[in-house]
## 1
Amino acid sequence: MDGLMKTALWLVSLANILKAAQGENIHFVGGGKYNWAPNVNFTEWSSDEHFYVKDWLYFGFDKNMYNVLEVNETSYEKCIDTDFITNITKGGRDVFQLSEVRQYFFISGRGFCFNGLKVAVNVEDVPPKPSPSSPKNASSSISCCRVCLLLTAFWTFVSPFILLLG
Ligand SMILES: *[C@@H]1O[C@H](CO)[C@@H](O)[C@H](O)[C@H]1NC(C)=O
Ligand SMILES: *[C@@H]1O[C@H](CO)[C@@H](O)[C@H](O)[C@H]1NC(C)=O
Ligand SMILES: *[C@@H]1O[C@H](CO)[C@@H](O)[C@H](O)[C@H]1NC(C)=O
Ligand SMILES: *[C@@H]1O[C@H](CO)[C@@H](O)[C@H](O)[C@H]1NC(C)=O
């Protein structure tokens, strides 16, 4: 029973590892779970990240203070919060999927955009997927290698427990 549990847990973790290796990342805007706030340098944050199609943005904030609106470039530059494209604000732990290869612009209304509460995100095409049928493709082999390393590390760590109990 215990061994079965361990195996089940292992399979769940394996699924998570594979999912993480495949992409579809979530980006915590500003670098943390509660960082949609005026004291964060979002230009610095977004230039350190790579955004790919289907990735998610997570905005964590005090909904009584701030909001999140998708706007066009002009509105982003000038902090215009009327006639926005999308209102992303819900409960203050809000997500948004980047579905196209383009630049996205987000601001907070209520004047906070003028204090720097705005971010521009440049979405790139999905990186080439690891494919076992093209082993000569350099970037694919690197990705495969990464998955193998993760699996090996994980197996080394967990297998003693499974052998012990199962
Ligand atoms: C944010 O960081 C960038 C790069 O380090 C810097 O050039 C810019 O002046 C900073 N912006 C603010 C508002 O501090
Ligand atoms: C951006 O949106 C504003 C407000 O809706 C609009 O007046 C302006 O024409 C738009 N600019 C562009 C370049 O689409
Ligand atoms: C955005 O949506 C939220 C939740 O539905 C709502 O409370 C808020 O008033 C909206 N903001 C704007 C600027 O429309
Ligand atoms: C990898 O292979 C795919 C499909 O053959 C190709 O489109 C892609 O450009 C290749 N990538 C590299 C880095 O060679």
## 2
Amino acid sequence: MDTRRVSWMDGMRGSARSSGMSLLAAVLIALVAAIFGLFGWLNYRSRSRLLAAVVPVHALAVSHVAPETAYPERFPMQVAVLRTVTDETMLPALHALLEMGIPFFVTRDLQQALRHRLVLIYPRVDAGTFTAAQLEQIRRHMAEGGSVYAQWVAEGPAEGLFGIRKAVASKGRHVVRFAAGAGPLLRYLNRPEELEIRLGSDQFPEIFWTQGYTADPTATVLAQFEDGTAALVRKRAGAGTVYLSGVSLLEGVLRGQTNRHYEAFRHYVNAFEPGGDVWLLILRAWYESQEPGAVRLATIPNGQRSAVLFTHDIDWENSFPPMLDYARLETQHGTRSLFFVQMKYVDDANGKGYLTPTNLDVLREIHAEGFPMGTHSIIHSRAFNHFDLGSGRESYVNYHPLGTGPNTATGATVFGEVRVSRELLDGNVPEQHTVFFRAGHLRVPKSLPEALQRCGYEFDSSFTAPDVLSNFPYALTLGLGFDDDSGLYEFPVTIEDQEQPALVERVNAAIEVFRANAENGAISVVLIHPTDAKMKLDAERDMLDHLPPGVSAMDPLEFAQFWRARDRLEWSVEPGKKPRTLVLRASSREPVRGLTFEFAGEIASVSGAAELLGDHHRIVLKALEPGKPAQVEVTLR
Ligand SMILES: [Zn+2]
């Protein structure tokens, strides 16, 4: 453990002892105490017990690999993502396809794309995107059973291909209503919150651009905006189908994930808000319904339908001893939660520091029992989202943040809150290696992903799920922008314990949200502050005892590691040598267990490193190790 004592006072006392200049040292200490005043002295006393681990600050890492290189063509069943312009971000499409476990590759070459049955045309089709000959090739591809999904088609020669006769761009549309039961594309949209979504609040007369279509008689409208124009259109052509959306994946998915939406959520927390997920589920349904041999990488490990991740925020002096009661309950239920600890070493207007020896002992005990911990900042300020990034040189020895009121602070930076909290948690809990962060009050500065990445964090849980319009984990972008992933993954909070009525009275409502997420293969993250070991503990026990079928509580860190490995998995499915066989290959850069693949076809048998589940449509890979690819032969009925 690379811990070191960094209190300069301790260092001075040590050297004073060794050189016998104890009198001089005492005088110096008194002098410093006088200079710092009583506050500084008390501050020193509370700090001198603490150890700080070395937390290096790395240079910012940004990937410049072109999507065509990062996601190459490997096997026939991949969706071809045809990139029509190079000056727009590909992240919305990449996030959506990776999250849904849909195999794909990216190309700029129409001929290469048309060798695959399913083609996603991204990000738009303008009047000049395709020549007449190319439009004819796409038409022929569809007639032969191919399927195209496009978004943002402008007026011009492509209109007929997509079943529209008019396209009108507007910033004034706020609602999308899906036609319930209108075909396989909408098969996952069964709840009211899914059948009508809000793109933005009415408070904003103008939000982002959408394209409202007028369908021609050959097409079917699957969704409408409130102005009556079509938001989603289906056209059948020969044996194939083309789908056209008026809401781009950038506006529908990435804008929510980066928290740049126009107050589109209908609740802030403690509710099912799938406003962004509907577009993911539509893509999933498109792939599953249009690719007869579809194979998809499931979102949840071990053939489960969903996972509930219990988390606890420790941001009050009396929250430490009850942590052990929660840990005991979770151990009894065969699971673990994740504790986010505010490493408050300063006394300020919001309260005293509480990293006392007794409280640190609790953290060590929690760690010894195998529970993961993350950090929850130093001063837990409501102003955190307005903090400057800082220099990256903030360290326990020189970082002196103070909350001057509930909404104000001095001397605090994003780097300081992120780095020093990790220095102290890792420094005072042997073998603790912190990779998970949660912001105080869930206030997220745009520079948070950079600070987390550069301080060695890997996962974050600082947004609420409704506030990012998604119940799926996702890749967190740098600057909460649209262009670059940070390498971190976000696990947004679904249910928390501070709204009224008390959590113990909201357990059934929470379980209904778990059920809604399970229907989509999404997750639920629960936040409970262990401020008591009575009512809230009862609420958690009630939840654990009544999880819906196929839903289990999982260690949040283990799930996060699973999700990242899944997101980065290289895999392929190709026809085997024998008839009706498929060969699935998978390799991972990190250890991962429980990876589950769903096959459209019924499976008769499996040989190799996988187990066939009882429904004969899913297989679970055996634990995968880096550098040891798995190969599985699947025989279909
Ligand atoms: Zn908190």
